[in-house]
Amino acid sequence: MTFSAWISEPINWIFLLVGLVVLASGFRVVTAKNVVHAALLLVAALAGTAGLFLMLAAEFVAWVLVLVYIGAVIVLFLFGIMITRAPTGQDEGLDSEKKVVPALLSVGVFVLMAWGSIDAFGTTLVGATGDPISTELIGESLLGRFVIPFEVVSFVLLAALIGSITLARKDLTPIEEEEGRRV
Amino acid sequence: MTFTIDYLALAPELVIVGTLLVVFTLDMVLTRPKKFWIATAAVAGTALAAIPLVILGVQGETRSMFDGSYVVDEFALVLKGLFIVAAYLVLLMSHHYIESERYYQGEYYFLLLASVLGSLVMASSRDLIILFIGLELTTAPLFLLTGWRKGDAKSNEASLKYFILGVLSTAILLYGMSFLYGLTGEITFSGLAEATAGRGDEPAMVMAILFVIVGFGFKIAAVPFHFWAPDTYEGAPTPITAYLSVNSKIAGFVALLLMLYIALPGVSEVWAPALWILAALSMTVGNLSALRQTNIVRLLAYSSVAQAGFMLVPFAAAAVVGADLEEAFAATVVYLAIYAVMNLGAFAVVIAGARKTRSGELSAWAGLAQVDSRLGVLVAVFFFSLAGIPPLAGWFAKFAMFRSVMIAGGTTTVVLAVIAAVNAVIALYYYAKVVKTVWVDDPTGEFVEDVEAAPAVSLRLALWVSLALTVAIGFFPALVTFVGDASRVIAVGG
Amino acid sequence: MIVSAGYYMALAAALFVIGALGMLLRRNVLVMFMCIELMLNAVNLTLISAGRALNDLNGQVAVFFILVVAAAEVVVGLAIIVAIFRRRSTASIDELSELRG
Q1: Range of the domain at B338
Q2: Does B144 touch chain A (CB under 8 A)?
Q3: Is C37 an interface residue toward B (CB < 8 Å)?
Q4: Which of A105, A155, A172 to substitute to test the interface with B, most B CBs within 10 Å?
Q5: What per-residue string of b and e applies to B101-135 under the rule 16 or more CB within 10 Å gives b?
Q6: CA distance B372 to B447
Q7: How would CATH label the architecture of A1-94?
Q8: Does the beta carbon of A180 lie under 8 angstroms from any beta carbon of chain C?
Q9: CB contacts < 8 Å between A and C, how many?
Q10: Is B30 exposed, middle or buried (CB count within 10 Å of its CB: 0-12, 13-18, 19+)?
Q11: B188: which DSSP letter?
Q12: Do B148 and A167 make contact, defined as CB atoms within 8 angstroms?
């Protein structure tokens, strides 16, 4: 397919636009000097990815991404920045001295990965076959075929919750403890 | 489609889940002086989980659920048994350690048992999603437990380092897995084995496998992905270090074994050379770094890196055309079982010794045997076993490893065997140095000599169990050969 | 005409590498966590596009699990950072140097 034929399709315009937004904001997350800006740019990157998920007809996970990440995880990040009193204005940005070698390495890895992807999937058209997977099917399989990981993952959440509270809480002094509060 | 759940096959996991909830409830109800009941419940629950394992083992039939994605066969049972015995020993070691300092006890046991649950699930997993979730449940609580000594900056940083590298390795692993899925459309191991066979020349496939190996390389702390291990081991509470170096490492190896031998046996020409390099580097770098250590925990950390190298050696044997993959698989499993017992023993000795020396520095341990000869004997037993000296258990592990290589033959594998042999000699030097320090050198400082410094009953029990196993396996290797035989049944595509 | 799955995957590869580059270059722990999120997001995009190309359910299920686990891990990571900040106040990993080598 020639480039002019490819670019004349509106859907490809949208793909290019959203893809550029995701990449640009992802790159800015990495380079932003201000930690709060990095967190907000992460929102843009995640929202763009959710848009791509929608284009790939994966609506359930797209909305999970929006609700859980943009709604909760980013807020958690902002709280983290606040609690840790991280420097918000004067962070040095890309602060490691050695930049050239990792950058070249990454570009090399990227070329290999992209080549591998296009080599294997370049001719596979998305959505060429069948109807999109419905949310109903996902729900059924989560409580059917995937019920074991579904139950186990709840323990991951429970352990993370309990452990994090314990690790992050302020320890009581022995006197406070004697006053009746338990540790 | 409807699926039925085989509750007997899930019984060990369900017992651990029940114990988790009991521990959690007890922690909310009990006041501090009565907290020892939590530890008791955790130990009892873990022991109880062994009963359904034995029942399932006696029945001896393979139980498969959910399209063959969750399988309880002899291999899974043997590994679950190993995880439970190791967890039992770690719990015994933890009890007095956690109680004697101001730690949060209930949450500690809760997280430790959650990690055990993850490893049990993983041993049965036969698809990518369950494997991933099991591995995450095994490691996620450990990020937190590593930082459990909140007041200590070393512990804080150890957990941060472990967390960042743990999550990074998960991302790399998942990227590899997502490609495997994309290339084959399969997530079960049996499906992957069929769909990947003979596709080792596709660039995307090679890339996917390399990503998976790098991801696991971090989890098992193989060189060059080992740099988190010594710092994390040193900073974590010592029972957690024991758990990290045994259960968590075994969990990584089990995942690697399942992925490579069961899901990807058809492309062994891709992964075997990569593991050859990892094995040679891990053994050499691990041992040479261990030579320079003056802290006993860091020494054990590098020693466990080197031991991981020995365990990887049989994987490389799979590169030989027509090699007996089952033999290699069984050799690694036998090594894992023996390593678990003797390494836990070594850490129990370190915990017991540190109560007397109040230090992890090797110089403070000089002459320890002169005041406590029993402890001295234990140091000698476990460290010589790690070195592989007969008649202690470690020799059979090394024997099984060398035998698998020799059966496979082939020039490259023999070269690796030579590297392994040289490394076994280097390792002997630093293990013997520890024993010499404890027995021959003159004390440099005072030892703590009061009732408090004596090992607690639970710690003594842990020492006795690991001592008995180490010596018994050394004299009667038949005790662990069934471990290898059990895994032989399932190895390589069923 | 529709975009081929390979382009989505190449985009995911770029996102993954950007995240990895951030892990290598940035020393601020919070930004490093964000880079991990970018990398996991790239994995998710790969899975979704593979699942769409194969018209298979399992890709989306895997993404669901990865999202849950990643959210749990952010919580764990922030708890670890808070524990560290109770003792000192820096967000740079270079200043955490009790353990070296």
Answers
A1: 11-490
A2: yes
A3: no
A4: A155
A5: ebbbbbbbbbbbbbbbbbbbbbbbbbbbbbbbbbb
A6: 10
A7: Up-down Bundle (1.20)
A8: no
A9: 263
A10: middle
A11: B
A12: yes
Domain extent listing, chain A:
1-94, 134-183
Instruction: Show the tokens assigned to A79.
Output: 């709280």
> How many domains in chain B?
1
Say if residues B266 and B318 touch (Cβ distance below 8 Å): no
Q: Closest Cα partner for C66 from A72, A137, B208, B174?
A: B174
Query: In three state form, how does the secondary structure of A123-182 look?
Result: CCECCCCCCCCCHHHHHHHHCCCCHHHHHHHHHHHHHHHHHHHHHHCCCCCHHHHHCCCC
- Which candidate, B183, B211, B141, C96, places its Cα nearest to that of A124? B183
Taking contacts as CB-CB distances below 8 angstroms, the residues of chain C near B226 are none
Q: Report the C-alpha gap between B118 and B130 in whole angstroms.
A: 10
Cβ(B87)–Cβ(B244) under 8 Å?
A: no
3-state helix, strand, coil in chain B (%, to 5): 80, 0, 20
CA distance C74 to C95: 22
Look up residue B109 and give its amino acid.
Answer: Y
Give B190's contacts (C-beta < 8 A, 6+ positions apart). B68, B126, B262, B493, B494
| Largest separation between any pair of C-alpha atoms in chain A | 78
Sketch out chain C's domains with CATH numbers: 5-89 (1.10.287.3510)
**What is the distance between the terminal CA atoms of chain B, rounded to a whole angstrom?**
25
As given in the structure block, the two tokens for residue B299 are 């020494």
d(CA B80, CA B12): 8
| Of B32, B130, B147, Cβ closest to residue A148 | B130
| Residue B4: inside a domain | no
183 residues of chain A, pLDDT tens digit each:
566 766 777 777 888 899 999 999 999 988 888 888 889 999 999 999 999 998 888 889 999 999 988 888 898 888 888 877 655 545 555 555 667 777 788 788 888 887 877 777 767 666 556 677 788 888 888 888 899 999 999 999 999 999 999 888 877 655 555 555 444
| Contact status of B5 with chain A (Cβ, < 8 Å) | yes
CB contact (8 A) between residue C21 and residue A102:
yes
Q: What is the pLDDT of residue A95?
A: 55
Express each pLDDT in B195-232 by its tens digit.
Answer: 888 888 888 888 899 999 999 999 898 888 888 888 89
The pTM (predicted TM-score) of the whole model is 0.90
Closest Cβ–Cβ partner in C19, C62, C80 for B147? C80
Q: How far is B110 from chain C (nearest CA, A)?
A: 15
**B74 lies in some domain:** yes
The predicted complex's ipTM stands at 0.90
In a domain, B3, yes or no: no
> Using a CB-CB distance cutoff of 8 angstroms, which residues of chain A are in contact with residue B115?
159
To 5 degrees, how large is the angle CA B146–CA B149–CA B155? 55
Asked if residues A12 and C1 have their Cβ atoms less than 8 Å apart, the reply is: yes
Name the nearest CA neighbour of B49 among B78, B98, B16, B1: B16
Q: Domain for residue B284, yes or no?
A: yes
Say which residue the tokens 């699930």 belong to.
Answer: B121
- Which chain C residue has its CA at the smallest distance from B231's CA? C99
Per-residue pLDDT tens for C31-56? 889 999 999 999 999 999 888 888 88
**pLDDT at site B5:** 81
Q: Cβ C11–A126 below 8 Å, yes or no?
A: no
- CA–CA distance, B142 with B147 (Å, rounded to integer): 9
Q: Is B99 on the interface with A (CB under 8 A)?
A: no
